[in-house]
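Homework help board

Subject: predicted structure for assignment chain

Our instructor gave us this sequence and asked us to write out the predicted structure in token form, then describe one feature. I got the tokens but I'm not sure how to describe them. Can anyone check?
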Amino acid sequence: MRAVVFDWRGTLVSELTPQGWAREALQRAGRESHADAVNKVLLDIKMAAGQPNRLQSPQGNISYEAHRDTYYSVFTDAKLPSEVANALFEVDSDASLNKFAVDAAATLIALKQSGYQICVLSNIHFDIRPVFKDANLLDLIDTFVLSSEEGVQKPDPAIFERALEKLGTCAAETLMVGDRPSRDGVAVEIGMPTLLVPALTDPQQRRLHLVTSAVGVDLGMLPVVQNDAMPDARTEIPNSRRQGALM
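My token output:
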């Protein structure tokens, strides 16, 4: 292996549950946010979204405008009050609610120090680079492939091919890591080895040791780094803690 491609939400950072999304939005809108109120909003959205779910549109993240229009179309059909609709979209677009996994920094540093290229590939309607910069992790990422910039999104195989082009690697030597079989799992169709992990809903959950194990990198005794104290990306990992043999 020469490179690792990570999904963002649900893999490197925590993702709000639907209940968490609706609850946060109701609170921001100054509405009651008890369980019944949350469930009603979610039911109204579900009924309006239909089947297949319009919020999961294969074109819904190819641009900021496409994402906004898709969501507001559903919110309008659900007859949600404008302040609730606006709050739902605001929460969906608020990267501060997506906390880096407790083992994200150590994993990215270990991979980088062991010679792997790293790409972040995400179906997302806004630029997530500032999030990595704020966490002192931007220098660890070789390239970003964001659907709203590329005009294509998972599960279209073209977005995985775009990642390979930017990395300059072939499919067989590039590991895809994600949490959704229907999206991230499509990478296998173009020959990328793929590791699917349970979706991260709490930043304290540990998943990423599965990645380092898969590529033969030993985290050893690397310290756990909290979200509010991410290390500088240039931090050296002692040689005794590296397993640098590339596969």
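Reply (TA_rk): Your tokens look well-formed. For the description, you could write something like this. The chain has two domains: 3-12+98-215, 18-97. That's the kind of observation they're looking for.
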